[in-house]
Amino acid sequence: PLTYSSFNYHRVNKTQTQDISACGVGFIAKGELTVDASLDMWLIMPDNGQQIHIKGEVVWSRRIEYNNYIVGVNLKDSTLKPIPIVLRIIQSKF
Fold first, then answer.
1. How much is the pLDDT for 35?
2. Over the chain (94 residues), what is each successive 10-residue block's mean pLDDT?
3. What contacts 51, CB < 8 A, 6 or more positions away?
4. How far apart are CA 24 and CA 15, in angstroms?
5. How far apart are CA 36 and CA 79, in angstroms?
6. Which of these, 28, 37, 90, lies nearest to 63 by C-alpha position?
7. Is the separation of the CB atoms in 26 and 58 below 8 Å?
8. What is the pLDDT of residue 31?
9. 3-state helix/strand/coil string of 79-93
10. pLDDT value at residue 79
11. Which of 62, 26, 56 is nearest to 41 (CA)?
């Protein structure tokens, strides 16, 4: 799970990550996010509900169906360690 808010739109949205790496996050957005939009994001860990705050900037956005967009976000100054996060997610599913 991922929650995000855009500085341009001032609302909080909930979604699911589609992919995650050391320098970026991909997710489905309800509504268009413009390229260069700054985002505050919180990854929610399924094993204990911990929220990991990250900041990013939209680098691409592509419409996949009416009002749904797949979005690629470049992380800014992130201390995100994706391998431990992925391992925690996998472990929580078993």
1. 93
2. 79 87 88 90 82 91 92 80 60 59
3. 3, 42, 43, 44, 45
4. 16
5. 21
6. 28
7. no
8. 86
9. CCCHHHHHHHHHHHC
10. 60
11. 56
Query: What 3 state SS string does 19-53 have?
Result: EECCCEEEEEEECCCCCCCEEEEEEECCCCCCEEE
- Residue 93's pLDDT is 58
Decide if 58 contacts 36 (C-beta within 8 A). Answer: yes
Which residue, among 57, 53, 50, has the nearest Cα to 6 in the 3D structure? 57
Q: Is residue 1 within 8 Å of 44, Cβ to Cβ?
A: yes
Given the structure tokens 């009416």, which residue do they identify? Answer: 66
Which of 50, 59, 41, 40 lies closest to 84 in space, CA to CA? 50
Written as six digits, the tokens of 75 are: 């992380």
